[in-house]
Amino acid sequence: MKMTKIINAAYIMIGDEILSGRTKDENLNFLAINLTNLGINLKEVCVIPDNEQKIIESIKELKNQYHYIFTTGGIGPTHDDITIDAIAKALNDKIILNQKAHQILIDYYGSDNVNEARLKMAKLPSKAKLLNNPVTSAPGFMVENIIVMAGVPKIMRAMFNSSLEFLDFGDKILSKEISLNVTESVIAKDLTKLQNNFPNVAIGSYPFIGGTAIVFRSFDENQIRQCYDIISNKNYE
Fold first, then answer.
1. Tag placement on the chain: N or C end, fewer CB within 10 Å?
2. Residue 237 lies in a domain
3. How many helices and strands, by DSSP H and E, does the chain display?
4. What local confidence, expressed as pLDDT, does residue 186 receive?
5. Does residue 129 form part of some domain?
6. 220, 191 Cβ separation under 8 angstroms
7. To 10 degrees, what angle do helices 83-90 and 52-62 make?
8. What CATH number did the domain enclosing 197 receive?
9. In sequence order, what are the residues at sequence separation of 6 or more whose Cβ sits closer than 8 angstroms to the Cβ of residue 180?
10. What is the block-wise mean pLDDT of the chain (237 residues), using blocks of 10 residues?
11. 204 with 160, same domain?
12. What's the confidence (pLDDT) of residue 237?
């Protein structure tokens, strides 16, 4: 019998602007959809401020719980971009001038225009693997199992796509949905019984005006089909 290959991940969203509401997040949905399609299960998401100690604590807490940690935010050239240094400290790594990243900046901006602020974006943990950024050149990076990306959605997506060559993918979670023209209260008892009988299937109920959508998620296609058939054959009219 084939063993299910499960790869799990967490996402740390870094930025005061997210917490204050100034910036509307677009990255979580993109990341969740794409990781699911790749067979990587996003199991935890946290939003934290631009605070070095908080970043360090979050990395240390999560890095050994999941196969991968994705982060966005705080890798630019300004004073409040502190993610790179914080991650290096969390991993007991040192910051070096990454020569490849440095050359990328020179090629993009010209050597006379790579000032101290821009040079900051080439100072990375010593073990970093670069993630290509065709949008503004300054690369993201992967160090150990942590994928560090920009917070700007267009740049984040480019860096994410670049990270795929370094990632291991697992089996994809399958899903099937049924919509019923009844309220959750009508089907609650049946769903509880079904969940108890099929513990390996995640069963979610999502109300909408005039009814309820039921979503079955599992690695086991046969069990999903059984759950779907049981509910679809019920007479709730």
1. N
2. no
3. 9, 11
4. 92
5. yes
6. no
7. 50
8. 3.30.70.2860
9. 187, 211, 212, 213, 214, 231, 236
10. 89 96 95 97 97 97 97 93 97 97 96 93 97 96 98 97 97 95 93 96 95 95 96 84
11. no
12. 64
| 112, amino acid identity | D
Residues 113 and 201 in one domain: no
- The CATH number given to whatever domain includes residue 13 is 3.40.980.10
Other Cβ atoms within 10 Å of 210 Cβ, number:
10
- Eight-state DSSP code of residue 237: -
Residue 27 covered by a domain: yes
CA max distance for the chain: 74
Q: How many domains does the chain have?
A: 2
Exposure class string for 120-153: b at 16+ Cβ within 10 A, else e: bbbbbbeebbbbebeebbbbbbbbbbbbbbbbbe
Q: What is the 3-state secondary structure (H, E, C) of the chain?
A: CCCCCCEEEEEEEECHHHHHCCCCCCHHHHHHHHHHHHCEEEEEEEEECCCHHHHHHHHHHHCCCCCEEEEECCCCCCCCCCHHHHHHHHCCCCEEECHHHHHHHHHHHCHHHCCHHHHHHHEEECCCEEECCCCCCCCEEEECCEEEECCCHHHHHHHHHHHHHHCCCCCCCEEEEEEECCCHHHHHHHHHHHHHHCCCCEEEEEEECCEEEEEEEECCHHHHHHHHHHHHCCCCC
Same domain, 196 and 147: no
Domain that holds residue 106: 7-166
Query: Is residue 1 in some structural domain?
Result: no
